[in-house]
Design goal:
The protein is of the alpha/beta class. Helix content is about 25%, strand content about 15%. The protein is built from nine helices and 13 strands. An eight-stranded mixed sheet has the order 8-9-7-6-10-11-12-13, with helices on both faces. It has a five-stranded parallel sheet with strand order 2-1-3-4-5, with helices on one face. The mean pLDDT is about 95.
């Protein structure tokens, strides 16, 4: 059990939320000024960059709640730092090589915090594709009345690659739409049913089966060395004709050039893409001009109360940290998530 902890929030959080952290426990010493002198970043979502005004406080921090580390300051200048709580589900966007090497610093993530809103985004993408909203919007812009026949979502198969908290939430909503759900989970060694969620939960090695049977392929897995370009030329060729892809994971999980070819050649029918290999997506990318692609700017997990939720996650782990109990969502550098 700790007697005290110096906490630093690595962005201009609103004063009321900073006050909530400061008053969470008598052992907490919040380093951030409460006078609003560090401006709060605009919505919709992280990354919240580490502001210059907070850099002198970095060396005093025992615990850091942040979206990003200050890239220009070596972590050696934070000799007291023992715990970093990230506000993103994945650690890949925030991990530096220095932090990766520091096994004495515990890194935790906010995995699951935005599972509900990301799942809603996925369902919106499935319905937009099924109901033909992309051609409808093009017709509206052109003032062209051109009728078409929408598809059913019910009865179709959704394949979820990465059955974590986001995947489970997607599965529940898909089952409510009377869809068939297949999913892969890394820890599964043999096909099995997951009651109330998946008609069939498969090991990662059975990805070809999932690809071949899915009408909608949903990617919701971490981006690691193992999952980089998991969906490439060969995997896209395994997808059934008329299938669509929805990516709410990380852009690097998909070989973007192979995806462009598959979409151009009609090997898959469409895609909803919230993440890309390089962000922001270059204006030169052919994806912008594809009539069967819906692009959103990495906002699937964005929400008006993002900071409030991040503070709630942090306070839960802070109580554990102060009392010497195991932290939630500990990042494993060997697995990459």
């Amino acid at each position: 059990m700790l007697k005290s902890v110096n906490v630093l929030v690595g962005w201009g959080m609103p004063s009321a939320l900073l006050q909530t952290i400061a008053e969470a426990d008598h052992r907490v010493r919040l380093l951030n000024p409460l006078d609003g002198s560090v401006p709060a970043p605009p919505l919709p979502a992280p990354p919240f960059l580490f502001p210059d005004e907070l850099r002198p406080l970095f060396q005093e921090a025992d615990a850091l709640l942040t979206s990003r580390l200050p890239r220009s300051i070596p972590i050696t200048q934070a000799p007291r730092l023992k715990w970093v709580q990230l506000i993103s589900a994945g650690a890949d966007v925030a991990m530096t090589s220095e932090l990766q090497a520091r096994r004495d610093i515990v890194v935790t993530t906010a995995a699951g915090m935005a599972a509900d809103v990301i799942a809603e985004f996925v369902i919106a993408g499935i319905l937009a594709l099924a109901k033909g909203f992309l051609p409808a919007l093009r017709g509206q812009v052109a003032r062209r009345w051109s009728r078409y026949v929408p598809e059913h979502a019910a009865g179709k198969t959704v394949g979820i690659v990465g059955m974590g908290r986001v995947g489970e939430r997607v599965a529940r909503l898909c089952k409510a739409l009377e869809m068939r759900v297949l999913a892969t989970r890394r820890s599964v060694t043999a096909p099995q049913e997951l009651s109330g969620l998946a008609d069939l939960l498969l090991p990662s090695a059975d990805l070809p089966r999932l690809l071949a049977e899915s009408d909608y392929l949903v990617l919701s897995l971490p981006h690691t060395a193992e999952s980089h370009h998991l969906i490439g030329e060969q995997e896209l060729a395994m997808m059934k004709p008329g299938a669509c892809l929805i990516n709410v994971a990380r852009g690097g999980v998909v070989d973007e050039e192979a995806l462009v070819r598959a979409l151009r050649q009609g090997r898959i029918a469409g895609a909803v893409l919230d993440v890309f290999e390089q962000e922001p997506l270059s204006s030169a990318s052919p994806l912008w001009r594809m009539p069967n692609v819906l692009i959103t700017p990495h906002i699937a997990g964005a929400m008006p109360d993002y900071q409030e939720r991040a503070v709630k996650v942090f306070l839960d782990n802070l109580g554990r940290y102060l009392d010497g109990r195991p932290l939630l969502n500990i990042y494993d550098p060997d697995r990459g998530y």
